[in-house]
Amino acid sequence: MKYILISLLTLVLTINASGQGINFFHGSWEEAKELAAKEQKLIFVDAFAKWCGPCKRMAKNVFTQAEVGDYYNENFINLKIDMEEGMGLTFRNDYPVRAYPTLMFIDEKGEMVKKVVGGKQTEDFINLGKSVVASYDRSGDYAAQYEKGDRSFDLVLNYIKALNQAGKPSLKIANEFARNNKNLTPEQNALFLYEAVVSADSRLFRLYTENIDDIIKAVGKERMQDKVQKACWATIENAIEFESEDLLQEAKQKMDKYYPTNAEEFALNADLNYARATNNIKKLSNTTLEMSKTIYKDDHEQQVALAEEIMLYQGLYPEVAITAEEIVGKVLKKNKQPEYRLLYAKILHANNKSKKALKEAQKAYKESDKSDRCAAELEELIKTIKAE
Question: Do residues 50 and 100 touch, judged by C-beta distance below 8 A?
Answer without folding.
Answer: no
